[in-house]
Amino acid sequence: MVIPGSCRTSERKCNNERCIAHEIVCNGHNPCGDHSDCPTGLEHLSSWAMSGIVILGLLCGGIVIIMATVCLQRAGSKRYEMVRRLFKTFFSGFLAVVGQYIPV
After folding, report:
1. Residue 7 has what DSSP assignment?
2. Cβ proximity of 62 and 90 under 8 Å
């Protein structure tokens, strides 16, 4: 039951000011019409914070690839060449993503 305006205690207010019954919150449907009935917890983060999280994740992935490359190279593994190519591909993609956020 969707009722615009002030919400009762048995209802939850959506971001668009609609009121929905607690029974239909996070039920896989979109009773609010703006997907605010089931918050993800990330709504409060700014775009800069989200960008920082993405860049940090990419940096951590790069560090893991560097460590794997060094370990495989020292071990003399035949997989070293494959990891080296993966490393080059990863960082070329990383630089393309980061380049979008660097002012010219």
Report:
1. P
2. yes
Q: CATH classification of 1-40, choosing from 2.60.120, 4.10.950, 1.10.10, 4.10.400?
A: 4.10.400
Q: Bridge-partner residues for 19, per DSSP?
A: 3, 13
Element holding 39 (H helix, E strand)? none
Per DSSP, helices labelled H in 11-79 are 47-75
Using an 8 Å Cβ cutoff, are 8 and 19 in contact?
yes
- How confident is the model over 71-94, as pLDDT tens digits? 777 776 666 677 777 777 777 776
Q: How many CB atoms lie within 10 A of CB 22?
A: 12
Beta strands in the chain (DSSP E): 2-4, 11-13, 18-21
Radius of gyration of the chain (CA): 23
pLDDT for residue 104: 46
